[in-house]
Design brief:
The protein is of the alpha/beta class. The chain has a single domain, classed as P-loop containing nucleotide triphosphate hydrolases (Rossmann fold), CATH 3.40.50. It has ten helices and eleven strands.
Length: about 240
Amino acid sequence: MENIEELIQNYTPGANTAETLAKSRIVLFVGIVAAGKDTVIGKLEKLDGYRRVVTCTTRPLRINDGVLETDGFDYHFLSMEEMKRRIDDREMIEINKFGSNFYGAHIDEFITAQRENQIALTDIDVNGIASFRKIAPESVTALFIVPPDYDTWRSRLRQRYTSEDVFDEEWQERRDITIDELEHALAAPYYHFIINDDLERAVRVIDEIAHKPDEFNLHDEDARQVATDLLADIRAGIR
């Protein structure tokens, strides 16, 4: 009998799953660390017409900031057996392994969004964007969140660490990951870059793009240049 790792190799969703996804309206968020992606999504999902996709995971519940996670809100917490069944039935959109646990989006989230005439929202990595677009390219709007400049990004990132020493220890790895993400996104023609310099403005721009994804947005060119400049500054190692 195949285990989950064997099943997810070259995984593709079933025909019904792919058909449902193709009829959905989906906004996928990617962003470099400390760009403010979670804050933007949290603000957007409070608007009418949006539904946050809750990801499935096999990891146990955790306590965050003194509060135990909630099943169905933070994640859908599944047993290995249930996750395997959903993969066997090809109901998952995509599936990934982090550490010893598995994560992925299930088609039921998109069925619910369709039924309620909502746009499905979720944050994802660049590989996940590629998986969604392979299944339903016309349904997916891909957004990449960036801070307005290098100094702002480094300041926001530093605030996540308890001391300068801890930050310095993590800096090189964070820098390398961020360079990879920006390079990947800038090489792809389908990303809308969103500058998170003013939260209300960023949410307003995203709302406009989400409802008119095929219209050329003059802000896209400017935002892509900001991302390009940010990448150049990070490569240069400016401190």
